[in-house]
Amino acid sequence: MNEPAIAATDLAKSFRGGVIAVNGLDLTVPRGSVYGLIGRNGAGKTTTLRMLMGLLRPQRGEARVLGHDLWNAPRGIRQRVAYVSQEQQLPPMKSTAQLCHDLSRLHERWDSALAGKLAARFGIRADAPLATLSGGDQRKVAVLLAFAARPDVLVLDEPAAGLDPIARRQLMEEIVDFLGDGGERTVLFSTHIIEDLERVAEHVGIMDRGRMVMAGRLEELQTGMRRVQIIFNGAAVPEGFRVPGALRSHAEGPVLTAVLRIGSEAQLDALRATPDTRVADFPLGLQDFFIELLDRPLAETSPSI
Amino acid sequence: MLHFQLNVHTGVPVYRQLMDQIRHYVASGALAAGDALPSIRELARALAVNPTTIVKAYGELGHEGVIDIRHGRGAFVAELQPVWPAARRRERLQVLASQLAVEARQMGASDPEALDALRGALAELNGSNHPTPPNS
Lengths: 305, 136
Hints:
A: Alpha-Beta Plaits; B: mainly alpha; two-stranded antiparallel ribbon; 2 strands
């Protein structure tokens, strides 16, 4: 059972008009782990999730969830996977209670007690038609339905979008409970809220322009990313001085700051040994790292006019 | 339950922050020998962090001898706190001392000022080990 819960190789998808949404993406989510996907708007996160869920046909590559391509997987497999999309289409005239009743007949593992508990906890009026609920409440219903199906794989596309801070916290607590319920639960979620990700994710993938630009265990990213500051004794950073392995560097006067991924502290010791300098290093939170990695100067992102 | 302050933007992994805070609570006497730590699920939920993070923090503290993990019963502050070998203690103190020295110098603190601050911090810990009884 060492097969990953989710595995995608070389996924690609472009849309009419030539927009390339996903371009050669690899993604592996081990069973029983929590994977957080981050990236700027338009990085291709939603398209990726939709391909994984078998809702969109990739033009290239392969996407497997629990060993199956969900595009044509048997119902038994599909039932073990729950997906909450950004624009959930829930039947507007039905109430949460009716919807739960319908789903309980379709899903073998439907947990009515959990559905009721979550509705109470999220403050959802279970007998009100969904159309009368606010956007945030409708989102909570979609999340509630996903949890109550007791899936092995839970995929959430920006679950916290549009939720107030209390609802967001409740959502994170429910995810934590879901993880600790004894089953081997796998969660893949995309988010812009890096704090949420740093709390629950074990693996992180950073997407940019349809590709995975960085992926790894959160802990390794956190301990391996450093901001290094090198202050030269002279008036300026010497011409041609480079920090090996720097993802980004910036020189101003005698100060060179760089962001790098280190494999071991020895790499920093080598830098500290640079003659006539003072070297300081700082840990880098994921949020800072994300900004450093993706906030390119305009000149690089858009062609000059 | 004891308060744990997580600061997720610092880049310090959450399990390490937890370990540091539990060590601090033990050192300051807020947690005494034999005290029970919150269960993994309880703490995971309270902090909204992945249960594996708590497992990892408890596991490492157990390995260090700061806490005892009794299977099926939970985690407890160890009766005897671990004694570090002198060489390892010196090495670790050296690292912390040079951090303090560098920062003190950078902010323009005099040497006596820096030493006073350290003495004060130590005195505070000693004080809280033997709390003065409240007025009663």
